From TrEMBL:
Xref: Gene3D superfamilies: CoaB-like
SUPFAM superfamilies per UniProt: CoaB-like
Biased composition (Basic and acidic residues): 340-353
One GO MF term: catalytic activity
Region (Disordered): 213-246, 337-356
Official protein name in the record: Phosphopantothenate-cysteine ligase
GO process terms (BP): coenzyme A biosynthetic process
Amino acid sequence: MLSDIPSETPPENLAALAEDHYFAANPPPKDLANHVALAREFIDYHAAAGRRLVLVTSGGTTVPLEKQTVRFIDNFSAGTRGATSAEYFLEAGYAVVFLHRQFSLLPFSRHYSHATDCFLDFLREGPNGSVVARDEDAARMLHVLRKYRDARDRNMLLLLPFVSISDYLHELRNVAQLMRPLGPQGLLYLAAAVSDFFVPPDRMSEHKIQSTNAVDAFKKNNGSSSRPANEEEETFDNFDSSPTVPRSKSLIIDLDPVPKFLKNLVEGWSPQGMIVSFKLETDPAILVHKARYSLDRYQHHLVIGNLLSTRKWEVVFVSPGNPDRWIRVPFRKNGGGLADTEKEEPVDPKSLPEGEPEVEIESLIIPAVQGLHSKYIQTMETKGQA
Ligand code: 9Z3
């Protein structure tokens, strides 16, 4: 527990101690060594070519409730932001490490994998028992296929999956540290929806949490009966005031805060890379304030603020020394007129048209990030740190 850290610890050592403690207490994912080997080879290859490389994190992190996990708490993200951004980074010439939640959206396949249509709906039978794309989908599919093949053939995309919050943090720390040889050419673009709370391992049940006291009673009665010995041990049943089977228990979950590692990332894991984090809120009144607060606290390079309800339509760039910059896809308001894309405050979600925007907002976000990254590289070169 973090309370084990001595109270006299100087503040500058706290982040390092919290890091050592967290990573010692929470076991790494079983694929970590394999992922590190793949990432090292990929990063060294692109570093030698002098190419820019971005680590894109994507999708939600789970919070397991049991060590042998049956139940977990999840974050809502499907990985749309991350997978779409990865495609535009590839288009901009970046090599991409895509650290994503297992089975969430992937670059390129996202166009077909989680669509409301099954991918089979895009296919038809061709001549001589072959399978081909339907005529109306072929042109678009060919376009996506060519980009996908190009990324794969030129070794520009590395996919690394994670599941839980601790898997994610182990992977992030290792990949960020491997990116050091890239210096300022390295970019970290943290779009994953990261849980703020978790069950620490010392409070986590090994086995599936039981919903009745049958097992307790069974153990107490030395395996002879699952009936509780007395009334007080009985708990709750919706339907039966004197049940002959054990009653259901309610479950109270006590979560600890996940340590904030952005400071460790900025100062230790990847001190020369440009770091972009996302800030997600639901209340428009606090979004910019929270984004600015995060920037001041962690001293990184850019926070992209977005609201759950409007995240596909607008984001706000908050960066040191710059005015807030809203980036918005052009749209016609419900009433007809073209909306003011320069407006310096959140749009009213009620003014947005139904459905998805015609333009993917990531096609505007990535060139803007790329521009800031170019400036960052220049500044670091001038400082002699590149
Ligand atoms: C984001 O804000 C992403 O843009 C979304 C993308 C998760 C909203 P979708 O996958 O959604 O396209 O559906 N990501 C960051 C969320 C986050 O956990 N940020 C932390 C915070 O807000 C800081 S690292 O405290």
